[in-house]
């Protein structure tokens, strides 16, 4: 009985550590995404100011910038 309890406690502790690590990683990724979004907006603005328009970019990049401008990718 005590062995089972110790095993269960160890499993719960391991799961708790794993969940905390995953939560930290998700938080770090959210921060990274926010910074990348800001950088993409700035780059798109600067590019257009210097005559590099969306039509000069790949279709997937165009779609991403347009979606962000319309409020997507939050």
Instruction: Report the end-to-end length measured between terminal Cα atoms.
Output: 50 Å
The string of secondary-structure elements, in order, is HH
Shape: rod-shaped
Structural class assignment: mainly alpha
Question: Stretches where pLDDT falls below 50 for ≥5 residues?
Answer: none
The major pleated sheet works out as:
none
Helical stretch count?
2
Oligomer type: single chain
Helix content: over 70%
Total beta-strand segments = 0
> What is the residue-mean pLDDT, rounded to a whole number?
90
Proportion of residues in extended strands: under 5%
Radius of gyration: 22 Å
Task: Please write out the topology.
Blueprint: H1 2-49, H2 59-69
What does this 3D model show about the protein?
Helices cover 80% and strands 0% of the residues. The mean pLDDT is 90. It is an all-alpha fold and 74 residues long. The chain starts with a helix and ends in a 5-residue tail after the last helix. The protein has two helices and no strands.
């Amino acid at each position: 009985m005590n062995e089972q309890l110790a095993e269960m406690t160890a499993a719960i502790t391991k799961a708790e550590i794993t969940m905390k690590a995953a939560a930290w990683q998700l938080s770090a990724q959210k921060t990274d995404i926010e910074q990348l979004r800001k950088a993409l907006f700035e780059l798109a603005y600067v590019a257009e100011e210097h005559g590099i328009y969306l039509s000069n970019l790949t279709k997937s990049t165009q779609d991403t910038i347009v979606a962000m401008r319309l409020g997507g990718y939050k």
